[in-house]
Here is the input.
Amino acid sequence: FFFNDTATTEIYTRSIVGSVRCVQETAIRLLLFHAGLKFEDVRIKREDWPKYKDKFELKQVPALEIDGKILTQSYAILEYLGSKYGYLPKTYDKLYKVIFVMNTAEDIYRKAYMALMPSSPLDAKAKDEAKKNILEVDGPLHLGALFKKLSENESQKFIVGHKYTIADFYLLGFWATVLQNPDFNATFYEVIKTKMPGLFTYLDERMKDFNPYYKKCATKLYYFDAAGHGEMIRLMLKAMKFPFEDIRIKIEDWPKEKETGKFILKELPVVACEPCGVKFAQTDAIMHRIGGRYGYLPINKPEKLYKVVWWCNTWKDLIVNYMGFAHSSYSEEKKKEFRIYYFTKIVPSLFEAMESKIMMNKCSDYLVGKSYTVADFYFLGLYKALVLSSNLEEYNAIPEKYPALNAYYKKQMGLLSQ
Here is the structure.
């Protein structure tokens, strides 16, 4: 994640397999992922800890480093990120509920740690008593309180309010420990599933939102066996090094395929995530959704966002006007007239503007700023589809006439093909 063109975010945690310390760490990771922020996940091995600990205030992790500034204390980090990215309620009543949920989950986790984990300081007898207590007294009491809060909430999809708060991330951090740690799983999973089905459904459904983070999703891109609008999505996924199945539908098979119910609006492209069942349609919406989630859309920088959208809309103008004569119901005479206007007025105007824009950017490797944005993928995909793959002879002169754009295309396609 880039706060500016050079700032980076790193989260430091201890790399201890099976440790329930992952509750707070996981909550922070899930928040960063959900907010669409790129971050480096630095997991410190036990034997390397002496080399790192003096780096951190209080000599403990998790810690979050943002452009050299180090933040510590899990709750403080979560509230900082929650306030910055809209996951912290602005009303005192909801804020109380968020902190109540987090503190209650923290109580369960700490008591369970003492009772269940091999590294607990308790002796065998004390651990047996603590385990009995967590099973018969504190576990039902605290889980019951969380279930009650969920039941009383305005939406059972979230623990407080009608959207994600830091409380949701904290509970999912706890649930991840239940799913991953055998002792926690044996203690809590069936109890929550059978005695608190509403809480179980909430946790199970919310965890599906993070299937991409846990790499449990099989992503499929459906488009025709051509460049077109699907190409920009292919290129963005390739740049992310994100595994996906590139399903190319033949034109002659489309009339049958579109009636199967698999495709929203009966249009392509469609991106589907399985087994989540999530489907995304409409090219712009897909590019915004994936680009926003994975750091290719500078939504917090209005000036940079304007430049990105400028490139995207310029290509949309080229496509829309191209469709006006290439795939329309106009008469042949009208199509011919529109084609002449397109190549003598619209194409020169827009390509000259783009040639000027790319030469103005400080870094000629990208269209906006110093890294990939959705603007790059729009350009690369549609330049390939419209200019290089077209059978219209008027397009043949474009590469030579606009050398900066063509050089940029060749360089980036070379990099993305590696």
Q: What stands out?
A: The two ends are 24 Å apart (CA to CA). Residues 1-7, 14-21 have pLDDT under 50 and may be disordered. The chain is about 55% helix and 10% strand. The first strand starts at residue 9 and ends at 14.
